[in-house]
Amino acid sequence: MSNVSALRAPERRSLRAANREPSHWAYRVIAHFARLVNPLVSRRRWAGQEHIPKTGGVILVANHTSNYDPLALGEFIIWAGRWPRFLGKSEIWNVPGLGWFARKCEQIPVFRNTDRAINSLVHAEEALLTKHHAVAIYPEGTITADPDVWPMTGRRGAAQLALKTGVPVVPLVAVGPHRVLGQKNLEFGKLLGGRKPVSVMARPALDLSAYEGAEPTKEVLDDITELILDTLTEMVAEIRGEQPPPEGRYDMRLGRRVGDGAVRPE
């Protein structure tokens, strides 16, 4: 059975039955909120939750299409039995209420374009190796700017984290969240157009054995980033039933597709 043919509506399981990992009560509030809201705005189909380990540090690498992604992906991961710690833009921590939930749920702020940017990987490493959490990261670094909503070129952060920690790296994709709330800009009008199809799928952990013990050189990190983005693109193509653009990945800095290059210049 292919991954796509395995896509099904989520099982009607209680949170208590689906997830026994300890968490702050605030995270459970968010989980119930996601389970209440998601069915109202989307027709969910899921596959591959069994590929997310029930215990231990794990890196969840995902495509990024919309501001709605955390709700779509979060529900999928939580009902797979884990509480994801997302790396997210630090501005969220300054939003009243939302920032409080982000802190209580141990989300990891990313201070983009500052000297503090490296701190996010330090905190992510601690979450993986000391707290044995599931850490979710978008290798693209931000919502894709690709006009056809394919994964675009990425950053080396996910590769650095994978190489340094050695924990499993599980790929997952969401196809359709941009139909619910738009891509870069919030489009609340889309919420009025009826429920939109949203598919979330995970695959087994990537085989990174060839890089075990390797030094984190630019070339090695670029190779791992390429593998991650190739896998995510292949998964999106599988769900959409389409071929990725032959011109390659979109680079938001250049405003065009750039062939085989997976990593944006720093």
The gist of it:
The protein is an alpha/beta fold and 266 residues long.
Overview of the structural elements:
With 266 residues, this protein is α/β, with parallel strands linked by helices. The protein is 33% helix and 16% strand. The protein contains eight helices and nine strands. The chain has helices at residues 15-18, 25-41, 69-78, 98-104, 117-129, 157-165, 177-181, 218-240; strands spanning 42-47, 58-62, 84-89, 108-110, 134-137, 169-175, 196-202, 250-251, 256-257. It has a seven-stranded mixed β-sheet, with helices on both faces. A two-stranded antiparallel sheet has the order 8-9. Helix 4 (98-104) links the parallel strand 3 and strand 4. It is globular, with a radius of gyration of 17 Å.
Using only CA atoms, what is the Rg? 17 Å
Largest sheet: 7 strands, mixed
Average pLDDT metric:
92
Structural class: alpha/beta
